[in-house]
């Protein structure tokens, strides 16, 4: 997906908007059925640690590396929705991650005048949502089908930039789970008084894309023009709003992940399923000028050792093959993440600013996550057990816009060297802590 995809998408959106706007203008009630919205983030970060990919393998070598900076557009999203009437609605979301991507065809003089495709920039353009929904019983029951959000974990159900304080999305959940998790499937959902429920049938994840450092994060992606669905999975979520200002949610997922690819394993893997189980709980308290959020996620992956061995064998066999889309690393049998953040609106104590609707939240956040909380290969991946503290400000001069500033400090447990000196060959070098500062400007809203 490169420039041609982006131009085609923008042209299609423009055509759709013109057609829908004309239809809306002919509505007998002269009201528009079209909804246009979105959200976006522009970020600057300075990381005061090494950017080497080997910094965890040889921490002593990279201890004094200079800092490095990044500018980024993590997510820029266009949402389009339309009400067809009689309870039928459509929703869609096109997301440009990290500014999209670009390729160009050039004639290379050094390659005897051959045409060659060059990657000009990184990023991704993805259709993250496209669904048709039918409402029954005044919203108490809905049926939605298409590319839908899988609301497992807080950061998937509530992933817009005004729904978390940090500059980037919450790190723990975004590491161990797909994020934003979206898949083709069908959903039954609705609202019953103080309860909102959702149950989904989906295509399964692919364990060949699981990794040691990211667990199941890449499992929902597909390198093909379709998503393989040899396996199916189920997801569910329920939220309660009985207490004023408080939402409590519980979500879960279960599905097989092995064989959900175009490659067929041998008979010795007949009993291997790669069943993935996830349970997650989260809450949001928005009251008394405080916003407090918390989550805990636990995932168990069956047959981790067998699938790790299978992936390693495939890596040995296919590592020189161009275009190999999978990772083929060892995988943990369990992953965990938990977090707590709290922010107070200090402008609530200044009458003029309170009346004008300005908000300034001073916040703090603590989180822990581990993509290899248990498993045979745990000892080789101790750096996957991470802790992170963040503190900063969220300023909203108007409701859709939030300007964010954050200091974060990612750190690791110190190894127990049992009194050994640092020059001993048995001494285990501690990992270097990873502080950073980030600034971001975001928007979230419906424009029509």
Report the C-alpha radius of gyration, rounded. Answer: 24 Å
The low-confidence parts are 1-7
Number of strands: 19
Helical percentage? 10-25%
The SSE string, one letter per element, is HEEEEEEEEHHEEEEEEHEHEEEE
Main sheet, how many strands, which sense, barrel?
Answer: 16 strands, antiparallel, barrel
The helix-and-strand class reads mainly beta
Mean pLDDT across every amino acid position: 86
* Strand order in the largest sheet: 1-3-4-7-8-9-10-11-12-13-14-15-16-17-18-19
Strand percent estimate: over 45%
Termini, distance in Å?
Answer: 28 Å
Total DSSP helices: 5
Choose one word for the global shape: globular
Verbal overview:
With 448 residues, this protein is mostly beta strands. The chain contains 5 helices and 19 strands. The protein has a 16-stranded antiparallel barrel. A two-stranded antiparallel ribbon has the order 5-6.
Q: What does this entry show, briefly?
A:
The protein has 448 residues and is mainly beta.
Question: Which features does this protein show?
Answer:
448 residues, mainly beta, 16-stranded antiparallel beta barrel, two-stranded antiparallel ribbon, 5 helices, 19 strands, 46% strand, globular, disordered N terminus
Question: What secondary-structure arrangement, pairings included, does this model have?
Answer:
Layout: H1 3-25, E1 34-47, E2 68-72, E3 75-85, E4 88-97, E5 102-108, E6 114-121, E7 124-136, E8 141-149, H2 154-157, H3 171-176, E9 182-192, E10 195-203, E11 232-240, E12 246-255, E13 276-287, E14 290-301, H4 304-318, E15 334-345, H5 351-356, E16 359-374, E17 385-396, E18 401-411, E19 434-446
């Amino acid at each position: 997906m490169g420039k041609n995809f982006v131009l085609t998408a923008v042209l299609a959106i423009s055509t759709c908007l013109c057609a829908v706007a004309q239809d809306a203008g002919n509505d007998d009630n002269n009201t528009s059925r079209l909804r246009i919205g979105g959200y976006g983030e522009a970020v600057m970060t300075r990381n005061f640690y090494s950017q080497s990919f080997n910094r965890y393998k040889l921490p002593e070598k990279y201890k004094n590396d200079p800092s490095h900076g990044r500018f980024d557009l993590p997510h820029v999203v266009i949402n389009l929705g339309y009400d067809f009437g009689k309870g039928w609605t459509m929703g869609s979301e096109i997301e440009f991650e990290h500014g999209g991507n670009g390729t160009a065809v050039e004639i290379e003089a050094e390659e005897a005048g051959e045409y060659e495709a060059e990657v000009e920039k990184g990023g991704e353009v993805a259709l993250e949502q496209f669904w048709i929904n039918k409402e029954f019983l005044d919203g108490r029951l809905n049926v939605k089908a298409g590319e839908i959000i899988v609301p497992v974990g807080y950061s998937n159900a509530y992933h817009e930039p005004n729904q978390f304080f940090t500059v980037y999305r919450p790190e723990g959940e975004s590491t161990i789970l797909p994020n934003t998790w979206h898949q083709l499937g069908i959903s039954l959902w609705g609202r019953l008084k103080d309860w909102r429920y959702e149950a989904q049938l989906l295509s399964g994840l692919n364990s060949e894309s699981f990794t040691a450092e990211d667990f199941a994060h890449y499992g929902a992606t597909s390198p093909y023009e379709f998503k393989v669905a040899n396996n199916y999975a189920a997801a569910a979520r329920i939220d309660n709003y009985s207490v004023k200002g408080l939402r409590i949610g519980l979500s879960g997922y279960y599905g097989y992940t092995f064989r959900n690819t175009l490659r067929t394993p041998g008979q010795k893997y007949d009993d291997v399923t790669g069943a993935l189980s996830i349970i997650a709980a989260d809450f949001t308290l928005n009251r008394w000028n405080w916003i407090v959020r918390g989550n805990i996620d636990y995932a168990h992956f069956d047959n981790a050792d067998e699938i790790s061995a299978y992936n390693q064998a495939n890596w040995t066999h296919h590592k020189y093959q161009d275009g190999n889309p999978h990772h083929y690393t060892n995988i943990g049998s369990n992953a965990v993440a938990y977090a707590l953040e709290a922010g107070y609106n200090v402008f609530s104590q200044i009458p003029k600013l309170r009346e004008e609707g300005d908000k300034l939240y001073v916040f703090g956040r603590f989180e822990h996550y581990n993509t290899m909380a248990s498993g045979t290969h745990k000892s080789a991946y101790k750096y996957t057990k991470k802790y992170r503290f963040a503190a900063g400000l969220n300023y909203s001069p108007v409701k859709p816009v939030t300007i964010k500033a954050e200091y974060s400090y990612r750190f690791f447990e110190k190894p127990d060297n049992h009194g050994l000196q640092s020059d001993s060959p048995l001494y285990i070098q501690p990992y270097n802590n990873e502080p950073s500062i980030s600034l971001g400007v975001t928007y979230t809203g419906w424009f029509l």
